[in-house]
Amino acid sequence: MGRIEVRPFDGNPADLAALINLSWQNRYLARDLIPVYDAQTLGWQVLNTGEDSRDFRLAAYDGGRLVGCFLAGRLTLRVGAEIRHGTQGSYFSVHPDYAARGVASRLMNALERAHRRHQLDFMLGYVNAAPHTPAAQFWTAFQRAFPARYRPLKSVHFWVRFLNARAAAGALGHPAERAGLRILSALQSAPRRLNAAQNSGEVRSFTPADLPACHLFLDRAAAHSDLAQLWDASALAHQLYSPPVSHTLVSALNGHIQGFSTSFAWPLHSRSSLPAEAIDLLLLDDLTPAARCHLLQATAAASAERGAWLTLAARTDACHAATFLACGFVPVPQVCTLMLLFPVPDLKLDDLRTVGPLRLR
After folding, report:
1. pTM (two decimals)
2. In the listed set 149, 173, 199, which residue is the last one of a domain according to the structure?
3. Which of 245, 323, 324, 313 is nearest to 279 (CA)?
4. Would strands 330-341 and 82-94 be described as parallel, antiparallel, or unpaired?
5. 214 near 236, Cβ under 8 Å?
6. Is the residue at 360 inside a domain?
7. How much helix, strand and coil, in percent to the nearest 5, is found in the chain?
8. What are phi and psi of 283, to 5 degrees?
9. Do 179 and 295 fall into the same domain?
10. In this structure, what CATH number is given to the domain that contains residue 77?
C-alpha cells in the first residue's frame, strides 16, 4: 500500500458505485435497508451536475486503486432571509481494507478546504440516525469532537408505501417485518391511477413546457420556508426529467399546473435486493385534498408500473400526513438527520422551523 492521495474523481462511475456499495454494506447490518447505486444513478445524482462542482466530487486513491470518496455538488439555499451558497453531499465511503488508515479524515479535510477555497458556507447532507450502525456512531463521535464543523438541523422521517408487499417481505431480514408485510399484502391493494371521472383534475407526465410553472412553485415554497433550495432552470430540468432514472408527474386543472411530484430510482438492499423509488420533490400545497391524493396515488402507481416494490418520501414535518395515510403510506420515524458540515460562523441556524422541498441525496 502506498501513499493515499485525495483529488477530484476522474474515473469510471461503475467503479465508484462498486466502492460505495461495498462500503455501505460493510457499515450496516443485514437487517438494515441501504441504497444500492449504479453508474447511471450516480451520474444523474452527482457526477453530471456541472463542471463547477468538480472540486467537491472527491476520491481517495492508493496508487491507481480507488479506496474512498466523498461527493458533493453546488447548492444555493434560502436560510431565513439570506441567500447562502454551499453544496449538498453524500456517498461518504471508504473501502473496508482502508478503514483504519485515516482515509475518512483526509476526505473530510480535503472537502472542507475545497469549501473554504471557493468561499462556500456549508455542506448540506443526511446522516443515518440508527444508533446501532457504524455510520451513526462515526457522525456522533465527529459531532462531539468538532461541534463547530457539524450542525444538526432537523430529524427526518419517511413515509413508505409498499407497492408489492408480498415480494418485499422476501427481501427483508427481520421476521416481524416479513410477517407484517404478508398481512399488509392481504389487506392493501396495489395503487392505481384514477380516471378522469374520479377526479377534478388531470395528472400527466411532465413536459419541458411545464418547467417554468414547476420552477415558480419551488420558488414560492422557498419564500415561505426558513430553509429551502433555490434552483436555476438547467439544474431543475435535469432534476425533473432524466429517464430512466427520474420521472415527474404534474397535476393540472383546466390546463394550469397546480402541483407536481418527482420520483427517482433508488434500489434498496436488505436480505436481498428490493426495487424501490424515492419521491424527491412533492408540491401539494395548492391542491385540494382530493387532488393531493390523486397526485400521490398516481405517483405511487407509476412507480409500481416501473417495477418498484415500494416508494418512499423523506419529510421533516407532519405536513400532509392525512394525504399520505389516505394513500396507504405508513410513517417510519427518525430515519436520518438533516445536517450541515463546515458551516461558516455567521450562518444563522437557531430558528429554522419550516423546511422547504429538498433533494434526497
Report:
1. 0.90
2. 149
3. 313
4. unpaired
5. yes
6. no
7. 35, 35, 30
8. -110, 105
9. yes
10. 3.40.630.30
DSSP bridge partners of 35: 268
Residues in Cβ contact with 60 at an 8 Å cutoff, skipping those fewer than 6 apart: 4, 5, 6, 66, 67, 68, 69, 94, 98, 103, 106, 107
What does the pLDDT average to over 290-296? 95
Q: What is the mean pLDDT of residues 297-319?
A: 94
Q: What is the mean pLDDT of residues 10-16?
A: 93
pLDDT score at 48:
82
> Which residue segment(s) compose the domain that 112 sits in?
4-149
Cβ atoms within 10 A of the Cβ of 137, count?
A: 14
Q: Is pLDDT of 338 > 90?
A: yes
Question: Within a domain: residue 353?
Answer: no
Cell of 291: 387532488
Q: In what order do the strands lie in the sheet with 273-274?
A: 34-35, 268-269, 273-274
Give the C-alpha separation, 61 to 7, whole Å.
Answer: 8
| 12-16, 80-84, 334-338, 348-352, range with the lowest pLDDT | 348-352
Mean pLDDT, rounded, for 149-177: 82
Q: Which of 149, 176, 203 is the last residue of a domain?
A: 149
- Integer Cα distance of 244 and 237 in angstroms: 14
Q: Nearest CA to 53 among 121, 149, 150, 118?
A: 118
Say if residues 361 and 229 touch (Cβ distance below 8 Å). no
Q: What is the pLDDT of residues 66-116, one digit of tens each?
A: 999 999 999 999 998 899 999 999 899 999 999 888 899 999 999 999 999
